[in-house]
Amino acid sequence: MLFTSFEFIAFLAVMFLLYYLVPKKFQWLLLLAGSYVFYAWAGPHFLAYILTTTGTTWLAARWITRMQAEQAAWLKAHKAEMSREERKAYKAEGKKKTRRPFLACLLLNLGILAVIKYTDFFISNVNGIFGTDLAFMRFALPMGISFYTFQSMGYLIDVYRGKYPAQDSLGKFALFVSFFPQVVQGPISRYDDLAQTLYEEHPYDHRNISFGVQRICWGFFKKLVVADRLLVAVNELIQNPADYTGAFVLLAMFLYAIELYADFTGGIDMTIGIAQVFGVKLVENFERPFFSKNTAEYWRRWHITMGTWFRDYIFYPISVCQPMLKLSKASREKLGQALGKRIPVYLSTAIVWFVTGLWHGASWNFIVWGMLNCLVLIVSQEFEPFYAWFHGKFPKVGKTFWYRLFQVGRTFCLMSAIRILDCYRDVPLTFHQVGTIFTQGNWGIFADGSLLALGLSEADWAVIAIGVAVMLCVSLAGRSGSVREKLAAKPLPVRYALYWVLFVSILVFGAYGIGYDASQFIYNQF
What we know:
Elements: H1 6-19, H2 27-41, H3 47-78, H4 84-130, H5 145-161, H6 170-178, H7 180-183, H8 191-198, H9 206-239, H10 247-277, H11 295-301, H12 304-320, H13 322-335, H14 337-340, H15 342-360, H16 364-382, H17 384-393, H18 401-424, H19 427-439, H20 458-478, H21 483-488, H22 492-509
Helix pairs in contact: 1-2, 2-6, 3-4, 3-5, 3-6, 4-5, 9-10, 9-20, 9-22, 10-18, 10-19, 12-15, 13-15, 15-16, 16-18, 18-19
């Protein structure tokens, strides 16, 4: 059930009416029922996967919390009669006991994800390396499995670490895992953040609902007016690589970057807006990433919840694990402090980016994409002394508007170039196509009408240009505070005129009908 489909709009309208009609103590139950209806719409058999993750994680977390409570109570009662070494040994033994259900649940659920998502990728590589002819399993990928698995495992890890106790109610935990606005493409919420508003009773709040609807409409605008219209040209460029080389590849690079941004942030806008209509607050997942001045800043602003998940649950644990500490010590002894201390950090970074690439898709183009991002980040970090010297030597340069614009443009171009691996889905082909930018040129395409052969008319390009300009203006306005708050302060006629312009733009300029398709969100495949 696509967010942009009539079925979903009807589903959302029914949910909205019932939500504010039922007794408030049952609101969370209605959200749970609606979430399972929404998920079952994608295929009733897929419910088995999300139910398995929900049930096993809830049981394991409850088991861990109960053991932690029992150990804490016993230690408190016997603390006076135990030595420091005995208390330490008791805690270590207790940690070992809680680790068993923790690891069992973690391996089970990550194993389900790995088997479904990566079995055919593994078979493909075995066949290619050893010349075998193993049959592919061709598992159907359940909707949002990467998102709800990571969200559930983040909760389990937090409970194991003692950040908070396990949720007692199976139903409430099931809602946390399956909450329908975010199950398609995130954000990957943390339990202690989402639980603050997910289970509360929410009276009708006109201002909150109005803000939610505005955010939904803004998401529709990005998705239907910009992303799905650009999709036509991007598909034409990517699906016929032999016909579109040189400058066409550069064009595809930038068009895809804009399309992905409009598609993904548009979907997140809808997700956050839908949740807000029900009084639920979700964390932001983007913070104007195309204004970033370097790649590290870019990845702090793009898909924020994914980045923080990998940082907190993979990078930090790997960085401080015993093998890595031993490597750190050996590296400093043999290579010196300066280089030795960086080896474990860069190795941990490489592992994280390898996993990040694999998370995005079971193919080598995503793995290479991840490792290229890793390489750029490491090289940037190694060049920091040079940057410091440059800015010290020319302090005024770094403060100019033009230099900041150069930094933003450089970061955008670099990230767009790496992201082209998403498009062709073939590593050698991607590098060949990028190479033609420098060998074949074709720069005349921007003036000879070639752009009109990509499935879009002059009117379409004009709509895209205006849509991108509007997105840029809104992003600039958002740097100094909430755009919706600013609109709310405007006179009523001005405010409603802008709302109607947005609404009519979606209806008139949205990509519908012959030649277009209100397509599935790109990140739904993950």
